[in-house]
């Protein structure tokens, strides 16, 4: 189970899969494991000077220890972390970043058998999104969707189904439908990628 629950193991496995099946696994940002990949990050940054990076503890949670930088020299090579190219132009809803918390029950690996709960959570940031720059890379209320981070924001809205910081996926599906997106196609595609 740790192969998919720890950020470093998941990164290694996804990187292995993208090397084997580049067209099928081009679904996640470029990711490195520190400290072993530190030189690769520095070489990548020299060729891609405009990139922003997000660095996370390999086994962390609740947004602790995460930082964002536009300068690869700020990336510390001595800790067990993962480093990813930051998605600087994410899909936004009403100007805010969000993530999906989808609940999956895995009952067997061989044969693969899993069950996906059709409702889950949509977690929003409390500050509207602006592309990362030197002035806002430290604004975790803009960049991270973690509840443990957002609940401390003055902009955090509790228990409001339509406009709260944490909403049900059924609310998101209504937003998609109201804005011309095919809910079934989008949700089924997200489930496929998650599997």
TrEMBL record:
Q: Cite the entry's keywords alphabetically.
A: ATP-binding, Ligase, Nucleotide-binding
> Looking at the Swiss-Prot or TrEMBL record, what is one Pfam family this protein matches?
TTL
> Which PROSITE patterns does the UniProt entry name for this protein?
TTL
Which SUPFAM superfamilies does the UniProt entry name for this protein?
Glutathione synthetase ATP-binding domain-like
* A Gene Ontology term for the protein's cellular component: ciliary basal body
Does the UniProt entry include the keyword ATP-binding? yes
Highest taxon in the source lineage: Eukaryota
- Which source organism? Schistosoma curassoni
Question: What are the GO MF terms of this UniProt record?
Answer: ATP binding; tubulin binding; tubulin-glutamic acid ligase activity
| Gene Ontology biological process terms, A to Z | microtubule cytoskeleton organization
What's the name of the protein? Tubulin--tyrosine ligase-like protein 9
Tell me yes or no: is DNA-binding among this UniProt entry's keywords. no
